[in-house]
Design the sequence.
């Protein structure tokens, strides 16, 4: 039985794959407290925050849900040493890291650097989950495929579509990514997902996680 089938029988299961997100650079402590309270109240998989808020989220969730912190956010243009320093600084607070691939290297055809960048961070974070953001709304389908293959080659546990700044994610992006990386790499759909039907469409296309700031709205739109 696929997860899509499970959703048909038990729509509440969507909560188990939602990563409730607030990466607004002006987010306040109170907003992060609300985010984490909603994660626990609704049974979401994780809270996604910027590094500044990772210690607070870790304290509030206290192991009852995962903390996801972003690295190289939002464009991935930092050099590998900077990403490594950022990732290592988060090891005491984050269970998972969402890292942006080096988009400048990718745009310049420097595929080796893209792979090395991902591999270096993955090797530095022990057994924590690494998701790598390729910013699919800004890419052609051929580029989506190439980016997904590269970050998977670098050892990312998940390929993630977008940070949410460059337009919404489309289910076709997920389909291309799933075809590119096969069944053993996770896919996280993120960017513009606001309803249960949209989340279900992403899962049907092959997503195994959903990232959303509208997580409560998604849950409350369950038929």
Sequence:
């Amino acid at each position: 039985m696929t997860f899509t089938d499970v959703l048909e029988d038990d729509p509440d299961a969507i909560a188990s794959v939602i990563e409730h997100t607030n990466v607004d650079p002006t987010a306040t402590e109170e907003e992060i407290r609300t985010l984490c309270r909603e994660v626990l109240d609704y049974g979401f998989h994780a809270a996604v925050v910027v590094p500044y808020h990772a210690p607070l989220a870790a304290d509030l969730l206290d192991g009852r849900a995962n903390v996801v912190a972003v690295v190289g956010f939002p464009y991935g243009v930092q050099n590998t040493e900077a990403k490594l320093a950022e990732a290592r600084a988060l090891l005491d607070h984050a269970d998972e890291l969402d890292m942006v691939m080096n988009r400048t290297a990718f745009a310049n055809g420097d595929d080796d650097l893209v792979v090395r960048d991902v591999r270096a961070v993955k090797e530095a974070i022990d057994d924590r989950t690494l998701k790598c953001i390729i910013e699919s709304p800004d890419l052609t389908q051929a580029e989506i495929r190439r980016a997904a293959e590269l970050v998977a080659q670098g050892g990312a546990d998940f390929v993630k579509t977008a940070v949410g700044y460059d337009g919404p994610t489309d289910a076709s992006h997920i389909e291309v990514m799933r075809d590119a990386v096969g069944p053993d790499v996770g896919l996280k759909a993120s960017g513009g997902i606001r309803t249960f039907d949209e989340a279900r469409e992403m899962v049907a296309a092959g997503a195994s996680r959903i990232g959303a700031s509208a997580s409560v709205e998604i849950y409350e739109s369950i038929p």
